[in-house]
Design the sequence.
């Protein structure tokens, strides 16, 4: 009896083992058949550039003037004295510089003498012509030819003298205007930004100003803006009218409300507008965008600041997803999102406003900034495992480098020594 029970126990163990082996191979087969390979996913916050790593993403910016007036001297004249320097406040009509007109005054005096002489010469010619007319009227036929030839010669000299007199009078008037206007005044009220000397310009902000070749540049009034820089990878995340927060690099608590009013999409070929990506070594173009500030109190011209997307009251302000991440089927919209088990699911989303210029949609519901999604190409399918490591054979649609593994953000030091961390041109303050 005991022997029979032993065989029954052994048989049960063998059956359980067989079922376990069969289950394992069935799981492997089903797992392999569900989806081949893995899909590269990124967080929505990283794709959109909003709220990445729980923070508002920032761009480097500098305070500039909305309107800069350029004043250039007459190239034919020499500047005698400049009355202003960078940083000075000026009013409309205030003297900026004056020309050296001492030599010009002497030349003008000589010109007046020449004019007086020509007027006397012309008077003499007219008198001679008058006398010749009288002689011609009384002359014999044999003397007429010589008298008429003499008259023609005097008339030609008269025309020449008359032309010279008109030319010198015109020059005299011009000289008089220059002498009278030898002092050049400011056309507007504002602040002197720079004064050129020896083909270089130093402004009141302590750095070389090579952006203008003008002799004097004046910032008109107190109408400031903030100029930011964005790369071609993330320019689509910005749009005109987008609310932003300007944050001081010195005092992180000092913020200023602003709005993007202009995005310069014209590629500038200067090497200063290029940067090298960490993950490719290839060049990418940079573009400028401009922010109007509601209240500039506390900001200084040339001050470096952070430009944070969104508003101070609303950390997760409206964000937009590029349309190429969406699967549009009739009136329904979907994305390939990572589910709780780390696999791809086809998730329904509700779309908001469409931005035609940026080709992106506001996501009303169905997707959060913390979710991870995949680019919906033919290689991605439902049930596929997800990965956040991008290999060379799995191109990332957000990178223009044609592939390559994503590199983590690299620590850098900002201009004032404050540690910052960046992805492309996006800066995350510490």
Sequence:
């Amino acid at each position: 009896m005991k022997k029979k029970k032993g065989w029954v126990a052994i048989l049960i163990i063998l059956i359980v083992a067989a079922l376990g082996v069969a289950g394992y191979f069935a799981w492997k087969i089903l797992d392999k058949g569900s989806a081949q390979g893995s899909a590269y996913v990124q967080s929505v916050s990283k794709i959109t550039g909003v709220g990445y790593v729980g923070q508002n993403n920032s761009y480097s910016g500098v305070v500039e003037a909305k309107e800069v007036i350029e004043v250039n001297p007459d190239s034919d004249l020499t500047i005698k004295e400049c009355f202003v320097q960078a940083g000075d406040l000026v009013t409309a009509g205030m003297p900026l510089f004056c020309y050296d007109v001492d030599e010009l005054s002497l030349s003008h005096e000589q010109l007046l003498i020449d004019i007086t002489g020509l007027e006397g010469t012309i008077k003499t010619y007219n008198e001679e012509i008058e006398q010749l007319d009288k002689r011609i009227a009384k002359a014999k036929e044999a003397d007429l030819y010589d008298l008429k030839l003499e008259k023609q010669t005097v008339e030609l000299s008269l025309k020449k003298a008359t032309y010279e007199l008109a030319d010198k009078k015109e020059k005299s008037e011009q000289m008089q205007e220059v002498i009278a206007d030898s002092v050049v005044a400011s056309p507007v009220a504002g602040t002197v930004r720079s004064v050129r000397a020896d083909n270089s310009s130093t402004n009141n902000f302590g750095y070389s100003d090579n952006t203008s070749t003008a002799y004097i540049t004046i910032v008109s009034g107190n109408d400031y803006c903030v100029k930011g820089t964005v790369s071609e990878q993330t320019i689509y995340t910005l749009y005109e009218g987008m609310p932003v927060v300007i944050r001081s690099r010195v005092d992180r608590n000092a913020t200023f409300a602003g709005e993007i009013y202009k995005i310069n999409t014209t590629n500038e070929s200067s090497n200063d507008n290029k940067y090298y990506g960490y993950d490719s070594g290839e060049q990418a173009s940079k573009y400028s965008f401009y922010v109007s500030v509601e209240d500039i109190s506390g900001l200084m011209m040339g001050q470096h600041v952070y430009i944070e997307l969104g508003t101070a009251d609303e950390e997760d302000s409206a964000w937009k997803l590029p349309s190429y991440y969406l699967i549009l089927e009739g009136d329904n919209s979907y994305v390939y999102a990572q589910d709780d088990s780390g696999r791809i699911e086809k998730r329904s989303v509700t779309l908001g406003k469409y931005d035609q210029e940026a080709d992106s949609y506001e996501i009303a519901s169905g997707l959060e900034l913390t979710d991870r999604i995949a680019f919906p190409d033919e290689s991605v399918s439902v049930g596929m495992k997800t990965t956040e490591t991008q290999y060379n054979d799995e191109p990332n649609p957000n990178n223009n480098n044609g592939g390559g593994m994503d590199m983590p953000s690299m620590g850098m030091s900002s201009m004032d020594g404050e540690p910052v961390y960046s992805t492309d041109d996006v800066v995350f303050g510490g």
Remarks:
- The two ends are 77 Å apart (CA to CA).
